[in-house]
Q: What sequence folds into this?
């Protein structure tokens, strides 16, 4: 099963992001859901990419980083060491 998402880049760390998004790394967050329902809130942030992704619930930070390359074609120059 896949969920529609938006990869967001923003320097903000708002309550909206904490409550509604999965933090990837740095300024990057993944919003799961219909972007049109939250146009007002999302318009305050840069939407880098959109697309379907698997459930994000149990993924590690490194898996989220690797997933962004697979799902969105967005690569980060950071590796999380475990």
A:
């Amino acid at each position: 099963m896949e969920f529609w998402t938006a990869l967001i880049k923003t320097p903000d760390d708002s309550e909206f992001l904490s409550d509604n998004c999965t933090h990837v790394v740095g300024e990057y967050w993944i919003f799961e859901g219909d972007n049109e329902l939250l146009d007002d809130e999302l318009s305050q942030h840069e939407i880098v990419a959109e697309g379907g992704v698997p459930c994000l619930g149990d993924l590690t930070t490194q898996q989220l980083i690797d997933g962004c390359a697979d799902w969105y074609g967005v690569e980060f120059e950071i590796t999380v060491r475990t």
